[in-house]
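CHAIN AND CONFORMATION:

***
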Amino acid sequence: GLFILFFVVFCCMYFHQHVLSPAFRQFEEDKRESRRRMDELQMERQQMQTELSRLADVCRNESVPDAFQTFVAGIPTLTKTERRIFDGYAAGLRTREIVEQLDIKDSTLRFHNKNIYEKLGVNSLKQLQQFVAILNSGSCSAPDEK
């Protein structure tokens, strides 16, 4: 009986030292990393809100730039598929998510992106997202939906 008790205690100590303790340490490390990443994301969000406010102020206080007017005027010219892609970007989706959501190939998305950029007069996804942010802020008028 004493041997069995010693064996059970030994197994518990071994299990704790070699399984539970490393798992707890990894959990704590992951928790710290998650908090660090959350802090980074909150900082990035704050920077984006600041940029949005700045762009909205530009839109409110100055004449609307020609590029933004071209952007707004181009939205109704998008095809149904281009509009779905545009709406995905406007909702904050990443290209991989749009490809999966629409069940299209990367090359198809690139083709549509080229057409969207051309119709909206933008040069990059970042510029498209900045103009969408201005539209979403309500500071400038959006095109009427048809």
